[in-house]
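Homework help board

Subject: predicted structure for assignment chain

Our instructor gave us this sequence and asked us to write out the predicted structure in token form, then describe one feature. I got the tokens but I'm not sure how to describe them. Can anyone check?
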Amino acid sequence: MLQHIAILSLLFATTAAGADAVWPWDIKSVEIREVYAGPTSEVLVENDCSKMGRLNLDDGAIGWNEIVAIGEKVWKIVENNKPVVDVQAPVVNALPRGVECWADLDSWKAPRARVLEVLYKNMLGMEVVKFRFRMQYTYGGGRGGRGQYLANVAVRPEELNVLWGYTVNALVEVGQAVNLGSADSPVAGLELTLKWTVKTVMKESQNSVSFFAQGDGVETQTVVF
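My token output:
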């Protein structure tokens, strides 16, 4: 179901000269809404480990209930109003300790995605920033019916329109992987936080959105800061 997640009244960091002034180009409101949530057939740009050598997962060396995040921990997705496009798009996997590649596991489910849109309006009511981004992940992988892990977890930009005089930067931070299940039936959990700033000559606003992906595919609430 599509929904409005938040309409925010922002506090701004300002320069001393403009601390008490309100200008037409200042940000008046920020609206964040969910555009889509559900299964997706879209495939991320190739950046996987499926070509690595396969492990022997029956050697007893795998810590099935010790879940670790493998991959980039911080990456930029927008820099100075331009989406950061990399052939090797950053992804994160939440896997049992000792497993380096998601392809060593099986029973993966179809990917899920959440698409959010952020709209900034100035004091004149003009839309000055439109920023749409996608959080995507594959879930449910395990071995022999044991475990539900996460693969190819990523956040990337989909659309960015910025009016002259405004500057947008955004990055993604990855939290620690956790076990939401038990030692015998581990379920991976992983939080990703998208942080962004919108600047004018005089002022700057900062916001963030946190997503939480679960190895069992259960959808959780998006948290806006």
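Reply (TA_rk): Your tokens look well-formed. For the description, you could write something like this. Residues 7-18 have pLDDT under 50 and may be disordered. That's the kind of observation they're looking for.
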